[in-house]
Structure formats: structure tokens, C-alpha cells
């Protein structure tokens, strides 16, 4: 019995946590203290905070991965959720390991906008597209994150002649098409943009660079 108890404790999953980008919500964990045996399997359950019964996640029942996609199970973005994981090895099951409470609307990381650059003589015209959630409209298109938050775009310009690391904020607002004027012909400019959520005071990472020579 003691040996079993030790095995139970040593395979118990560690650091169970939700990670979320644009409401793609996944549960992650690390293997227990024991050097992970090849036959260790993991079992995932989830529930809404306040509910008494846990639901099995069938796709993550007896898996070898350390991640489970719970996007569809956590689609009510204002609700708080919990996830939990247990491990099994050599016929012995660990206790459950519980995540912290997770509320998608408050905790999901917003991605940067997609940036398209169209340039004319002395100006750059940018088209910005909000990141998309995994949830779909009836017609099948993915719902943009602007449906869930008031988002602002922050646009930065990098003048490659001066300093590649020096980003100058040239626009902040919600327009999807932006014109940056009075630029010098023959100079290489790069644009990066961020999404900013004022209500949560949170910014995305930078978008990938879009560079152009006027």
C-alpha cells in the first residue's frame, strides 16, 4: 500500500494551468516528480465554477500529451472554469491536480492585428484586421475579437536608417485603414502594430514587421 501511495504521489501532474490566446483555451500540465514512465496516461475533467459535477473531456481521456484543448467547453467567455488532471501508471492512479480558476474574458491574451501595407508616393496606407476568435458565425466565418472587446490599434513605425529598435507610435485608435504621411522617398520603413484593450489595460505582442521602401 505504501509503495502505491508513493507512486501515486510521484506521478501526480504538476502546474495545471489554462493558457488562452484569442479564446483558444487549452489546459497544460507537467508530469509528476517521477521520471515519466512511458505508459503514463492522463485524464482531464472540467467544470464551471459553482457546479458540483465534473465533466470528462473524452478527447483527453487516457492521453499521453500534456495539453488538452478545452476551447469548445469554455465558450461562455464570462464564466469562470476549472480544469483538473490525474495520471495513471502501472495500474495506479494519482489524485487529481486542480487548475486555478479561469475566466476567458478576463484572462485570454489578445493577439496582434494582421497588417497589410499599401504604399503610395510619400505615404503608407495600412489595413488592419482584428484577431479572430475560434467561434463561428452561422455562415461559418470566425467572429473577430472586436465583438467581445472595444479594441484599439497601436501602430508604430521603424525608420531603418535611424535605428532598428526605435519604434515611434504614429497612430492609436480603432480605424481599420490608416494613412501615414510625410515620409521620405527612398527610405526603408517598417510597420508593427499592437492590439490594446483599454478596459483591461492590456496590449498584445507586436505584429510581424511589414517593410516597404517608398
UniProtKB/TrEMBL annotation:
Q: Where are the transmembrane segments?
A: none
Q: Where in the cell is it found?
A: Secreted
User: In terms of one coarse class, where is the protein primarily found?
Assistant: secreted
Under the heading InterPro entries, the entry gives: FN3_dom (IPR003961), FN3_sf (IPR036116), Ig-like_fold (IPR013783), Interferon/interleukin_rcp_dom (IPR015373), Type-II_Cytokine-TF_Rcpt (IPR050650)
Q: Which CDD domains match?
A: FN3 (cd00063)
Secreted as UniProt keyword: yes
Instruction: Give every Fibronectin type-III domain span.
Output: 12-107
Xref: Gene3D superfamilies: Immunoglobulins
| Keyword terms | Disulfide bond, Receptor, Repeat, Secreted, Signal
Q: Name one GO molecular function term.
A: cytokine receptor activity
This protein's GO CC annotations: extracellular region; plasma membrane
Sections of the chain in a coiled coil: none
Pfam families reported for this sequence:
Interfer-bind, Tissue_fac
Q: Do you know which PROSITE patterns this protein is assigned to?
A: FN3
Q: What does this protein do?
A: Receptor for IL22. Binds to IL22, prevents interaction with the functional IL-22R complex and blocks the activity of IL22 (in vitro). May play an important role as an IL22 antagonist in the regulation of inflammatory responses.
Protein family according to the UniProt entry: Belongs to the type II cytokine receptor family.
Q: Report the protein name in the record.
A: Interleukin-22 receptor subunit alpha-2
Amino acid at each position: 500500500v505504501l509503495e502505491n501511495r508513493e507512486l501515486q504521489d510521484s506521478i501526480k501532474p504538476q502546474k495545471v494551468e489554462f493558457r488562452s490566446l484569442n479564446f483558444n483555451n487549452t489546459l497544460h500540465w507537467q508530469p509528476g516528480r517521477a521520471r515519466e514512465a512511458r505508459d503514463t496516461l492522463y485524464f482531464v475533467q472540467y467544470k464551471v465554477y459553482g457546479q458540483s459535477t465534473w465533466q470528462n473531456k473524452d478527447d483527453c481521456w487516457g492521453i499521453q500529451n500534456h495539453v488538452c484543448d478545452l476551447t469548445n467547453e469554455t465558450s461562455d467567455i464570462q464564466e469562470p472554469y476549472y480544469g483538473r488532471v490525474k495520471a495513471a501508471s502501472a495500474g495506479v492512479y494519482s489524485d487529481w491536480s486542480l487548475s486555478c480558476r479561469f475566466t476567458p474574458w478576463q484572462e485570454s491574451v489578445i493577439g496582434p492585428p494582421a497588417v497589410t501595407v499599401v504604399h503610395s508616393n510619400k505615404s503608407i496606407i495600412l489595413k488592419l484586421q482584428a484577431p479572430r476568435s475560434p467561434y463561428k458565425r452561422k455562415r461559418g466565418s470566425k467572429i473577430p475579437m472586436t465583438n467581445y472587446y472595444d479594441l484599439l490599434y497601436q501602430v508604430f513605425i521603424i525608420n531603418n536608417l535611424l535605428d532598428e529598435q526605435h519604434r515611434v507610435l504614429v497612430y492609436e485608435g480603432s480605424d481599420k485603414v490608416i494613412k501615414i504621411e510625410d515620409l521620405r522617398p527612398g527610405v526603408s520603413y517598417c510597420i508593427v502594430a499592437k492590439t490594446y484593450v483599454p478596459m483591461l489595460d492590456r496590449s498584445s505582442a507586436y505584429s510581424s514587421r511589414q517593410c516597404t521602401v517608398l
